Amino acid sequence: MYPPQRRTTLRSAIVTKEKEPFIMSLLSTSRARTAGLAAVLALSLGLAGCGAVPDDNSSSAASQDSTTPVSGGVLRFGTKDEPGNGGLDPMIASVYASTSILNQIYDTLIVKGDDGQFEPSLATEWKQVDDTTYDFTLRQGVKFADGSDLTPSDVIWSFNYVKEKSPQSKAAVLKNLTNVTDKGGNVIEFKFSQPTPSFLNTVGDRLSGFYIVDQQWYEKTSEADRQKTSNGTGPFALEAWNKGKDVKLTRNTHYWEKGKPYLDGIDFVKVADENALLALVQQGQADAAWFWKPELAEQAKSNGLTLGKLQQTSTRFLFIDPNYDDGTLNNIKVRQALSKAIDRDAIIKIGTSGRGAKTFANPPAVAGLDTPTDETPNTKYDPDGAKKLLAESGDPNPTISLAYGADTADAPVFELMKDQLSKVGITLELKPVPYEEIQGIFTTGDKYMADLVLVQDVIGADPASAFTWWLTTGSNVDRWGDNEQAASAKELLGKIETNADDTSRVKQINELNNLIAEQVLALTPFATPLDYQVWSSKVHGYQTDPGDSRYHFKDTWLSK
């Protein structure tokens, strides 16, 4: 049940090291960068908020991986999800269930390692020439999975396509891109009309979807077939997507990184019921799996499986449509009362079993930014204040609807929230719906089906991406439009998007988070780890990564 990767969509990468603080690449980039230099300013910060996440990396993983990798074998990975809206079309798909697989098939120009540093991928060198110009030197000899050569024109076409035809959540990053040109010598120049400090962060994010695509293949392949076939430069290629059953990947024999991947393939096996998934992995019918329910992952760990490192990277967003139905949430006092009536501490303690934390739009794992306190507007539990605001609003007993994916593990949280709100006179109408309906909002701009719509957000490539995909006027998710109540926030976001000064950008992002809390333009009641991944003792070389992109599959091998 994941949204687009902005992000994030949209989504700076968190960095983890054993026994060391989390680090996040936060801000704008310096004037010149190469593969050998630190790519972004990194600021360190321990996890904040209630219920700090424990370090669950098993020492057995390190001891297993000290032996020599062995090639061969197919990894069976159990999952509740399969590709969502857009399928496996690299230019259209934007939900996590799709991009976490696309990331195995396609490459970006650069990537971020687990330490937050930019690393070469399809580009071997890169530099920021000035505030609005970037140069990338392409790796030579790269081939697509069908054996055709990667060319500079493929790169130029890929970025132009994203800007002109991809979903708004991706295209927004390139809105100020004026030209992409081949300078010769395998150097591609990107020219913007104004500073775009999020550009390198986003291009370097494995899940944001800025994949380099074979133009000839894409243009000759039908829209339907693009969703179920592939031709990338990544370590694996799509063998088959059997809807409702599995997604099968096979080794890309033309992959440019010598000797990898070790696996012959990966079989993502769909098992909708998490208890059945647990049984599958415990019985050895799956080599690895991920869970939403932490108690099941803990049970797997107690039975000898490795539980990957946990990071509070996933914010629960309750997006607001102020115009839904009779416009109940267009009234700021109703929104503020709603926020004050939510007991976040109780939700974290009871609803998330202490694994959650209070959060702004940026989750706690984003280092260097403020986290909510009792002084944050409308965040402290204040039922008396909520009742007062409702009395002043002219709507003392409003009914507010909340839509969420029917299979979410957060359903008990919303029952708890419903009980909390009832104590101040708010009736919360819960509307579980197929998550495909919610996906339609951020992929194709479908209408909201409730006053509030839940999206389990994932961390974005740049801190500003926590806002751009839902607060940018005209985006698929934005329902504030030209509503004056959101004008100040939208104006501040515009400044953040073009601010190349690291220090002032941090201040602006903190200011925006507080402004959103004051105006209650969206609700972010808590954050948790994105998921809980486990794997058996026969799996070597795999580890969870800070961006939850699962890119270590290319390093994974199986015991014979």
UniProtKB/TrEMBL annotation:
Gene Ontology MF terms: peptide transmembrane transporter activity
InterPro entries the record matches: Peptide/Ni-bd (IPR030678), SBP_5 (IPR039424), SBP_5_dom (IPR000914)
Region Disordered, annotated ranges: 56-82, 361-380
Top-level taxon: Bacteria
Any one GO BP annotation for this protein: peptide transport
Transmembrane stretches, start-end: none
Domain Solute-binding protein family: 118-476
Ranges annotated as biased composition (Low complexity): 56-66
UniProtKB keywords: Signal, Transport
Any single Gene Ontology cellular-component annotation: ATP-binding cassette (ABC) transporter complex
Pfam families: SBP_bac_5
Sequence similarity: Belongs to the bacterial solute-binding protein 5 family.
Protein's name in the database: Bacterial extracellular solute-binding protein, family 5 Middle
Organism listed in the record: Bifidobacterium ramosum
